[in-house]
Every structure is written in structure tokens, then in C-alpha cells.
């Protein structure tokens, strides 16, 4: 940048020796000079990119905070609204059902119509409206209205996650991408952790002024404030990205190809295995945590507050360890190996919680570390497999199949718990079975990538050599 500035000064000093410029040319030259800031104001600088990262991370805070409101108040929901476990799990599964299709469509609309900036704001507004309706349903003791609100909330939240992933790749691909995915997960899961910490105390305080379901409704309305703050972050990040696009004259699709919905069927086998892992791994985490309060109360005799504390440990550890794992993976690479290790250790954590009398803090700590490891290594694989102009579609499809799995598996898990007379062994074996599928899928990715000499399990140096070699061959 210093050299460019010096050259600009020299050009200005020699202007009398050059042909006279028109007024339009002078104005254009001055505009170009204004569009090339220096230091932390330059979009390509590390300082500026990490300023944007702060808002990227905070995009998901409100979504994750409100997503687990029912989990933190499971006993309150069931008591004040007179719900069975199956009805309670419907709150989570109805969140997922619309996204079996709409999340994929949302990602495609980002690629084809909205763009990342407008898409993020639209999905954030949908999320906010859904949470307001959900809280209103609790205020009115109308479970059907709560289900509608949760349905709308799910549409916005999962499509927002697609936009968040696309933002990360757009600003950090080829740089600190693994760490960025880890940090995004860290802040999002910190939102879930704070939810488990504060919702029960807030409910206890509010219940002094309101009774029964009205207290629950007021608490859920207070939780909506986090969504408003996330919307503000979406607006700021949109402004920063528009400015960066103007200054850098960025082109995310140099080939000029138009994304199509059917493009997903042209994706290679590793992408499909990643999609399977998105289902098989996460159904052993999210439904388990959603039902975790009851699990720890029945199996270990904890109070609701103690159960919430240990149940939130996965998210708390993920909030701390995700960026650390992301930083390590950025340095050493080997993403597929990290995914395999994460799956194995998560199976070990479920086995400890189910078949031993060791403190559950040990099993949940291992699960939290494993979950962080997987998120920091799995999601960046999509950016290595799929062209950038199709990333919204690809991430949307991953979110869609994940939501299909969560919608079905959460309901099945609730039914298993209802029919097991407080014996959680069968539902734990159910989760372990899904983790085994994730482990097998990881092995398939490794074998396919090795056979086709791909770059998914390379070190960063090997990957750079691989990409440069491929570019050279394409040039020839």
C-alpha cells in the first residue's frame, strides 16, 4: 500500500507533463484514491477482517440462546404447560421440520437471488418474529401458537447459519478458516451456555411477580432481546461487506456460472459423506442435551439446577476450546483425521455416561472437547469440496439433511424415554449407533480422498502445493 501511495503522489506532481484530464477523469481518479484506505480500514488487512469476525460470530448468539430456552426450563415447560416428554420434544423437532426443505432453499436463494448481506438480514428478521410468537404463545397458554412460533423461528435460524458459514468462507478462505469456524461455534455455544446459566434464575425472579405460564412467557420475551442484538450485528456486518466489495471490486463467481437447485446432484461423494456426518453426529449431541436435564436428574439424582449446570458443560467447553482446535487445525491440517478422532471420543463419552458411575462432568467434558474438534474440522471441508459460487447451496443442503435427522431423531428419542420408565440406557445406545454411522462415513471420505489423491486430509503446505499444481495444469 505504501508503494501505491508514493506512486499516486508522483503522478500528481507530474500532472502538468501529462495530457490534460477531463473533469470526469479527475473525479474518477479521486474516487479511486478514496476507495483505497490503509491500515485497519483496508478490507484485506487482518485487523479489519477480525473486526468483521466479531460481528459474524455475534450473528448466531441470539439464535443459539433462544434455541435452548426450552432445554434450560424443561421442568418448567412440562409443569406449567402440562406437557409430556413427547410434546416437549415437539418444540425441538418442529424447529427442524421446515428446514428439511427451506434451509436448502434458503442457501440457494443466497447464491442466486438475495446475496449474503440481504439474505442474512431477512433470515434474522424471520427468526426474531418466530421467537416473539413463541413467547406470546406461552403468555397465552396456547401451545399451538408456541409451535407456530417455533416453526417460524426454525426457518430463520437455520438459514441464518448458512449465511454465517458463507460469510466465513468469503472473508477467510485460504487464511484462518478452521479457526474462524471454531470461533463462530464458540460464540454461538457461549450463547447456549449463558442460556442454561441464566434462564432458571431469571424465571425464579420473574415468578415472584407473575404466576404460572405467564411467568414463562415473560421470561421468553426477555430472551428475545438477544435476537434484537444479533439483528443489529447483521446490519453492521452487511455494511462492512458492501464496503469491502466496493473497494476490492470483489467477484465471487469469476466463471460466471449461474447456480441451480439441481447442482447438488453433481457434488462428489465426499460431500455426501459430510452430509451424513452432519446428521449422524449431531443427533447424538443436540437431542441428548435437550433431554439432558431429565437424564441427569434420573440417573445421578441431581436437582434441576445441578442438572442444567452439567448439561450446559458441552456448550461451555465448546465456547472455550473451539477456536483453539480451529487454530491447531489451521496449522497442522488433516481435517478428516480430526473428524474421525472427534467421533471416536464422543462415543467414549456416551459410554462413560451410560455404563459407569464416574462423575458425569468427565463424560460431558470429553463430549464438549470432541464436539469442538468436529465442528472446527468438518464444516471447512465443504469449502474444500465445493466451488465458492455454490457454497450457499452446499451449506444449505447440509443444514437441511441435518434438520431432517434432528426432527425425526428427537421425536424418536422422546418416545424411547417415555416408554423406558426413566431408564435412559436404550436412548443412549440409540445415540451411540448414530455415532457409529458417522465414524463409518468418515472412513469412506478418507478412502475416497486417498484413492483420488485429493487434498482433504493434507497439511496446509501440502494443500498449497496441490492447489498450485492444479492451477498450473489448468493454465497449460
From TrEMBL:
Gene Ontology CC: endosome; Golgi membrane; lysosomal membrane
Region (Disordered): 1-29
Transmembrane listed as a keyword: yes
Family matches, as Pfam families: MFS_1 (PF07690)
Physiological role: Lysosomal dipeptide uniporter that selectively exports lysine, arginine or histidine-containing dipeptides with a net positive charge from the lysosome lumen into the cytosol. Could play a role in a specific type of protein O-glycosylation indirectly regulating macrophages migration and tissue invasion. Also essential for liver homeostasis.
Keyword vocabulary terms for this entry: Lysosome, Membrane, Transmembrane, Transmembrane helix, Transport
Gene: Dgri\GH15505
Highest taxon of source: Eukaryota
Family per similarity comment: Belongs to the major facilitator superfamily.
Span of domain Major facilitator superfamily (MFS) profile: 52-453
Location in the cell: Lysosome membrane
Catalyzed reactions per annotation: L-arginyl-L-alpha-amino acid(out) = L-arginyl-L-alpha-amino acid(in); L-histidyl-glycine(out) = L-histidyl-glycine(in); L-lysyl-L-lysine(out) = L-lysyl-L-lysine(in); L-lysyl-L-alanine(out) = L-lysyl-L-alanine(in)
Lineage of the organism: Eukaryota, Metazoa, Ecdysozoa, Arthropoda, Hexapoda
GO molecular function terms attached to this record: transmembrane transporter activity
Biased composition (Acidic residues): 1-23
Residues annotated as transmembrane: 52-70, 90-110, 122-145, 151-172, 179-198, 218-240, 269-292, 312-329, 336-355, 361-382, 394-417, 429-448
Topology relative to the membrane: Multi-pass membrane protein
Subunit architecture: Homodimer. Interacts with lysosomal protein GLMP (via lumenal domain); the interaction starts while both proteins are still in the endoplasmic reticulum and is required for stabilization of MFSD1 in lysosomes but has no direct effect on its targeting to lysosomes or transporter activity.
Main localization, broad class: membrane
Protein name: Lysosomal dipeptide transporter MFSD1
Annotated PROSITE patterns: MFS
InterPro entries: MFS (IPR011701), MFS_dom (IPR020846), MFS_trans_sf (IPR036259), MFSD1 (IPR052187)
Amino acid at each position: 500500500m505504501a508503494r501505491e501511495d508514493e506512486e499516486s503522489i508522483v503522478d500528481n506532481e507530474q500532472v502538468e507533463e501529462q495530457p490534460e484530464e477531463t473533469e470526469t477523469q479527475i473525479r474518477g481518479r479521486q474516487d479511486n484514491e478514496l476507495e483505497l484506505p490503509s491500515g485497519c480500514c483496508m478490507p484485506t488487512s487482518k485487523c479489519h477482517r477480525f473486526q468483521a469476525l466479531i460481528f459474524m460470530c455475534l450473528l448466531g448468539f441470539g439464535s443459539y440462546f433462544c434455541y435452548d430456552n426450552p432445554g434450560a426450563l424443561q421442568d418448567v415447560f412440562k409443569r406449567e404447560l402440562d406437557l409430556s416428554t413427547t410434546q416437549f420434544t415437539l418444540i425441538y423437532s418442529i424447529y427442524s421440520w421446515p428446514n428439511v426443505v427451506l434451509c436448502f432453499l434458503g442457501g440457494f436463494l443466497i447464491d442466486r437471488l438475495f446475496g449474503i448481506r440481504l439474505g442474512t438480514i431477512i433470515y434474522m428478521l424471520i427468526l426474531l418474529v418466530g421467537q416473539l410468537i413463541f413467547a406470546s404463545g406461552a403468555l397465552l397458554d396456547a401451545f399451538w401458537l408456541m409451535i407456530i412460533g417455533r416453526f417460524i423461528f426454525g426457518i430463520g435460524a437455520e438459514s441464518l447459519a448458512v449465511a454465517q458459514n458463507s460469510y466465513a468462507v468469503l472473508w477467510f478462505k485460504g487464511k484462518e478458516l478452521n479457526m474462524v469456524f471454531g470461533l463462530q461455534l464458540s460464540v454461538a455455544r457461549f450463547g447456549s451456555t449463558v442460556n442454561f446459566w441464566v434462564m432458571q434464575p431469571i424465571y425464579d425472579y420473574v415468578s415472584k411477580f407473575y404466576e404460572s405460564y405467564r411467568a414463562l412467557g415473560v421470561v421468553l420475551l426477555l430472551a428475545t432481546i438477544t435476537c434484537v442484538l444479533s439483528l443489529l450485528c447483521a446490519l453492521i456486518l452487511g455494511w462492512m461487506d458492501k464496503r469491502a466489495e466496493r473497494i476490492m471490486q470483489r467477484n465471487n463467481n469469476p466463471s460466471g456460472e449461474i447456480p441451480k437447485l439441481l447442482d447438488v446432484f453433481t457434488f462428489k461423494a465426499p460431500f455426501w459423506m459430510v452430509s451424513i456426518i452432519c446428521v449422524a453426529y449431531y443427533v447424538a449431541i443436540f437431542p441428548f442435551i435437550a433431554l439432558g436435564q431429565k437424564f441427569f436428574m434420573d440417573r445421578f439424582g441431581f436437582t434441576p439446577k445441578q442438572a442444567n449446570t452439567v448439561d450446559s458443560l458441552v456448550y461451555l467447553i465448546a465456547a472455550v476450546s473451539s477456536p483453539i482446535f480451529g487454530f491447531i487445525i489451521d496449522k497442522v491440517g488433516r481435517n478428516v483425521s480430526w473428524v474421525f478422532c472427534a467421533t471416536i471420543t464422543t462415543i467414549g463419552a456416551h459410554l462413560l455416561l451410560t455404563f459407569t458411575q464416574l462423575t458425569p462432568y468427565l463424560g460431558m467434558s470429553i463430549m464438549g472437547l470432541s464436539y469442538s474438534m468436529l465442528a472446527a474440522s468438518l464444516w471447512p471441508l465443504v469449502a474444500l469440496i465445493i466451488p465458492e459460487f455454490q457454497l450457499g447451496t452446499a451449506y444449505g443442503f447440509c443444514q437441511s439433511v441435518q434438520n431432517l435427522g434432528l426432527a425425526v431423531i428427537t421425536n424418536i428419542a422422546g418416545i424411547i424415554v417415555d416408554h423406558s420408565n426413566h431408564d435412559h440406557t436404550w436412548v443412549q445406545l440409540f445415540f451411540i449407533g448414530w455415532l457409529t454411522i458417522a465414524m463409518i462415513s468418515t472412513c469412506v471420505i478418507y478412502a475416497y480422498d486417498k484413492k483420488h489423491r485429493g487434498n482433504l486430509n493434507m497439511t496446509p503446505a501440502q494443500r498449497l502445493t496441490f492447489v498450485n499444481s492444479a492451477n498450473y495444469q489448468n493454465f497449460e
